[in-house]
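FW: tagging you since you asked about this chain on Friday. Here's the raw sequence from the shared folder, copied in full. Didn't touch anything.
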Amino acid sequence: MKTDLEISQNYKPLPITEIAKKIGLTEDDIELYGKYKAKIDVNKVDYSKPDGKLVLVTAITPTPAGEGKTTTLIGLADAMNIIGKKTVVAMREPSLGPVFGVKGGATGGGYSQVVPMEDINLHFTGDFHALGAANNLLAAMIDNHIYQGNQLKIDLKRITWKRCVDMNDRQLRFVTDGLGGEKNGVPREDGYDITVASEIMAVLCLAESFADLKERIARIIVAYDVDGKPVTAGDLKAQGAMTALLKDAIKPNLVQTLGQTPAVIHGGPFANIAHGCNSVIATKTALKLADYCVTEAGFGADLGAEKFFDIKCRKSGLKPSAAVVVATVRALKMHGGLKKDQLGNEDVEALKRGLPNLLRHVSNVKNVYGLPTVVAVNRFPTDTDEEIKVVIDECKKLRVNVKLSTVWANGGKGGIELAEEVVRLCEEENKFSLCYPDDYSIKDKINAVTQKVYGGNGVKYTEQAEDQIKKLTEMGLSGLPVCIAKTQYSFSDDATKLGAPENFEITVRNVKVSAGAGFIVVLTGEIMTMPGLPKNPAAERIDVDDNGIISGLF
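HL: got it, structure written out here
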């Protein structure tokens, strides 16, 4: 069996200029990055056109068995084009952290991939490097301001801005810098986030123009002064230079799928520690270029989809037409208590124990957010007809159809029935709504997500979190939505609680504001904004030969 990389390397892509023509863009409307990648000049896009239909692809709580959300996203878009619906994919850029860590890339798999796979998963068009440079320029300007006399009276113990790097590196979570004497800076405790968790990433993904980007950067709170008042990037006069570093990064990237579907890829915040959606600019651009835009949000629907709705749609005015919840029988059996090496055998009882996970996700999307929904089951050869029937029968109780998908093996042709159902759902009555209103208090918003989306009983707060919520409320920031950072492996904040746990509380240990992004970050459990590499990182298996051919990349 060919690997994803081998399938990708054996495909001869169309020149990106040909892909651009499919969506009405000329060579003058794009900026070429070689033959197969380009950036879209959004100033050349006709935004007076009516929007296409927006479809969100989300998934059940992830397991080591895999769910194939991105693969389904890409295969669905290819299938929709096969049945004559002009469709564009809008998705996130991969982070180098997972590529060299354990999760892998974010370009799909099998015959439902975006290409050039190696380029996209590694440096792509340099967006993440630009984001890291802008983030770290701000960090440098903070410390230089302190070194040069600290006119803003920044409290060294209340600097909230961290440096970042796009790599899983636990060694950098907590550092002490500025050592080596007076000429080498001011000693202080510091730390790093992974680039995808940086507020700069969120700002880029939520900004809608250069002016909006600059204004958001200026609002970023980087520290508090000795009187407890916030100090912003604007106070440091950093916004102009930071925006200059991002002048190309703000432009969406255009590539293609193996089915020659145009794919707009831009931005990449993680959904467990950030808001998990591609950029507003990319999504809105895709909606003007096609009749359908198929997009995704990271991890399970309790993370990516919740933030897609409650943050991205709330802030941008986007209104989705339908949603797809992706699952596999194998993953559901893991939620039912089976080990990974037991998944090849039929076990209806384990499947039934794990099904509540799928049903809760489906109910959330359909009933909390009011969207027409279909379940896409990635079918494996070991799935039995009886197991598939159980999934179909249970989903029918929620008045949701199940469609089988074989897009990994068959590309778009393996998703025709799913595509037809998505098109049908897009024409249904849409009662899209949000989980909570803007005027809820910070605690009420956290509680609403915990009870309505996670299925928990309530929330506990550390003393530190209580103090922070009180401070943010006094600052007049309680009207912002919440971005809850928690484990991706459970509805709860405890990764060991699989399936659909009940009678639990989540623990909020830290709360901070991302004033530029326009949301409040809520840290639960043991979640970290700088991941670490596993015992056997994927980096150990990646190589390149004398001809520049990469191997071991999934």
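FW: The two ends are 13 Å apart (CA to CA).
HL: agreed, and Residues 127-147 form the longest helix (21 residues).
FW: great, closing this out.
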